[in-house]
Amino acid sequence: MTTAIELTELTKTYSRGRAARRGLDGLTLSVRAGEVFGYLGPNGAGKSTTIRLLLDLIRPTSGTVRVLGLDPRRDAVELHRRVGYLAGDFVADGRQSAGECLAFLAALRGGVPAARIGELAERLGLDPSARIRSLSKGNRQKVGLVQAFMHRPDLLILDEPTSGLDPLVQQTFLDMVAEARTAGQTVFMSSHIMSEVEAVADRVAIIREGRLVAADTVAALRARSLLEVRIDFAAPVPEAEFAALPGVTGLRLDGTTLTCHVDGAPDALLKAAARHTVIGLRADTQDLEELFQSYYAAA
Fold it and tell me: CA dist 194 to 244, 260, 294, Å?
């Protein structure tokens, strides 16, 4: 099997009285087996809706879903056996200790070695003896992560997995994701923070208002980013000489300093600048967070 998730023209419409709201709008997406796939978008973009459709927690209005080659509705029992799932709002019985909760969930899965559960809890800094109702959000999230990873599933579906975690635990989580990929597992991970998935994702998709706006490798998306340029001249230069250059946007002149963005090759800008005395030049690729924000804000 080369495809772990296949979505075709997937649409989900929520109705409330006479009003209707579209959670997904014709989403077509493919996730390869064995890859880490980052699913990015602002809150309310449709990430959790997609994940719930993958697991048949809700039903699509139209379109098709295949997960690990299975129909989430018809093959739910077999599919859930092979999936590790962390909901964006993970909850558990507050009367149990973390260890009791994990042992119960392990038993439902037919048994998971206690050593495996203990290893994950230790790595994440989770106290198994602590009552769940006494845990902070971050520590409850650790319980959710252990139960998702503990049975070494073929597919991990993680909805905002680092919510509430401190930076050190976030890094441990990313290490666990990388190890899962090395072991041949597929990871589908939603987030609204690019930096959270950049270090481990093979590919990412960006969703906005229920529609796919980009899907590619991190390197390819980085190649699309704009060049941020600052040029310091010895004397003021005419703005009109630079404003109409191909690929130049966001041009600003502040005294003898020119700043702008360049989409594509900066050759025309550099040739225009060379007609003047340049005393300083700096060019940086656009930060990926800024690139993703531009996708989020696009009409």
Answer: 33, 24, 12
